[in-house]
């Protein structure tokens, strides 16, 4: 990346340097993702596209992504799907004026999922799990 920035004219302003740094970072991240990643997004250079904060990605991934600023890369993020590096390349504003009736099912699904995970986390340490073979 330093070599790419060194190619800029010496009188380049900070905005031009920052744009080039972002472009180079995105380019090198994509090349490494295509080469090293096991994720289905590998073919697109690791690009998973824009996604909402809740309900689309697993929570550790979404939390890490939404804690980053554009062109900032995460530390290693562990999820049930493996280990990830996240590079945020932009932000989009949420949809204004969404009516509750239009979002009710999504809200119910997200809340139910969080409630289920919370209950499992509380009950699992105390649980005795027995697997009985089906009757013949």
User: What class, by secondary structure content?
Assistant: mainly alpha
Low-pLDDT windows of residues: none
N/C terminus separation:
66 Å
Q: What is the assembly state of the chains in this entry?
A: single chain
Mean pLDDT: 86
- Total number of β-strand segments? 2
What is the count of structural domains?
3
Helix content: 40-55%
Which percent band covers the strand fraction? under 5%
Estimated radius of gyration: 21 Å
Task: Provide the spatial order of strands within the biggest beta sheet.
Answer: 1-2
Count of DSSP helices?
Answer: 4
Major beta sheet summary: 2 strands, antiparallel
Order of helices and strands: HHHEEH
Specify the overall morphology: elongated
């Amino acid at each position: 990346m330093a070599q790419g920035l060194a190619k800029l004219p010496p009188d380049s302003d900070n905005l031009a340097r920052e744009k080039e740094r972002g472009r180079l970072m995105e380019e090198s991240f994509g090349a490494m993702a295509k080469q090293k990643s096991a994720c289905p997004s590998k073919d697109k250079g690791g690009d998973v596209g824009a996604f909402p904060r809740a309900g689309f990605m697993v929570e550790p991934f979404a939390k890490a992504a939404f804690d980053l600023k554009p062109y900032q890369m995460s530390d290693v993020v562990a999820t049930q799907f493996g280990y990830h590096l996240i590079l945020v390349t932009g932000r989009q504003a949420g949809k204004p004026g969404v009516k509750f009736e239009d979002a009710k099912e999504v809200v119910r699904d997200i809340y139910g999922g969080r409630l289920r995970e919370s209950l499992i986390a509380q009950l699992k340490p105390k649980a005795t799990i027995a697997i009985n073979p089906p009757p013949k």
